[in-house]
Automatic annotation (TrEMBL):
Family label: Belongs to the glycosyl hydrolase 5 (cellulase A) family.
Protein name per Swiss-Prot or TrEMBL: Cellulase family glycosylhydrolase
Ranges where the Glycoside hydrolase family domain occurs: 82-303
Lineage: superkingdom: Bacteria
Species of origin: Mucilaginibacter rigui
InterPro entries listed in its UniProt record: GH, Glyco_hydro_5
Annotated signal sequence range: 1-22
Protein keywords: Glycosidase, Hydrolase, Signal
Length: 355
């Protein structure tokens, strides 16, 4: 309880800082709250998941030509359509673009065509500070047995703040945004997943600012955002909140704690989408969180969809060396054949989605 109170106090202090500095903030082309709320009102309540096909261990394996798997994507997005999901959050990857710019964009377009066929809009993510820092193109490693997200890749990872990489990263973001800036199949651009993670902290602020500037220069029709996730990162949180058209955030806590986060973030007056939640062994479950998110009119995207090479049925900090199935899955909803892990969860999701 003391830790929860301290976290909430930190959030409140951040919000006070934001409000106090709002007059000095570089508003530029940040959407007005009226525009953001009008955009949100045009859409049904957003529900879905963070998606990678079960055949891919990481973003490179998803997007490289040799391992791009439209058949699995089609089948698994069919599972999503069947339970009423209408939104998926999908991670792109800069080295896949660098390796094959034209082919990469064609595969993104092919993914979007499949998703659109299933009535699903997509939120794309550019950069990411989570998990492995040293990515290499080509054949990707096999999953480590029983280890959560053993092959997931940071982007740019070890190339963060390498001045020799800046021009390439800018070209990547600019090219993809320019290509799809008017595409109605794209819901939102999530510019940077969990900046400051992997102990990078404020070292990620420089790239965070740059990617927002690059995105504003393209000026896509879709909103841009970067999700708040760690209330200790005051400078990062302030910049993200002031420069996002729509407030996105992550919360893996139980209902009472998560609701406090929502209540505090609502002070911005902007639409809100929770782009990561649902870690069963930590008290964040469909049964207690998803109905609350719908009641609060907050978009609900859980981490994990079909059990596969990412191994996200295993918890972050609790590997199972023999690879046996955990008694309680950490993330994910379906087995590869489309069988639900817990049928009662799927029934609840369908009910909330009007299916």
């Amino acid at each position: 309880m003391k830790k929860l109170f301290a976290n909430l106090l930190t959030v409140l202090l951040i919000l006070l800082t934001i409000n106090a500095s709002a007059q000095k903030a570089p508003v530029g082309k940040v959407w007005t709250t009226a525009k953001a709320n009008a955009w949100y009102a045009q859409h049904k309540w957003m529900s879905g998941a963070d998606f990678i096909p079960s055949s891919a261990i990481n973003q490179l394996e998803m997007w490289q030509a040799d391992t791009f798997d439209p058949a699995t994507i089609d089948r698994e997005l069919g599972y999503a359509q069947g339970i009423g999901f209408n939104t998926m959050r999908v991670f792109l990857y800069s080295l896949a673009w660098k390796q094959d710019k034209t082919g990469f964009k064609k595969r993104v377009d092919q993914y979007l065509a499949i998703a659109n066929k299933h009535g699903i809009k997509t939120m794309f993510v550019f950069f990411d500070d989570c998990w492995n820092a040293d990515a290499k193109t080509g054949k990707q490693p096999a999953p480590k047995i029983g280890v959560h997200n053993s092959g997931w890749l940071q982007d740019p990872g070890n190339r963060l703040n390498n001045t020799g990489e800046t021009a390439m990263l800018q070209a990547y973001v600019t090219d993809v945004l320019t290509t799809f800036k008017h595409d109605k199949r794209v819901l939102l651009w999530d510019l940077y997943n969990e900046p400051g993670n992997s102990n990078k902290k404020e070292a990620s602020l420089t790239l965070l600012k740059k990617v927002f500037a690059w995105a504003r220069a393209v000026n896509p029709e879709q909103p841009i955002s970067a999700g708040l996730w760690d209330w200790n990162f005051e400078k990062l949180n302030t910049y993200q909140a002031l420069n996002s058209d729509v407030i996105t955030y992550h919360d893996y806590t139980d209902e009472a704690s998560h609701l406090k986060t929502i209540q505090l973030l609502k002070s911005h007056g902007r639409p809100m989408i929770c782009t990561e939640y649902m870690a069963r062994t930590r008290g964040s479950k469909f049964a207690n969180i998803m109905p609350m998110l719908k009641k609060e009119n907050v978009g609900a995207l859980n981490w994990g969809f079909v059990m596969g090479k990412t191994n996200t049925i295993y918890a972050w900090d609790n590997p199972i060396p023999d690879g046996s199935e955990p008694k309680e899955w950490f993330h994910d909803i379906f087995r590869k054949d489309g069988t639900p892990y817990r049928p009662e969860e799927v029934e609840l999701i369908k009910k909330l989605n009007g299916k």
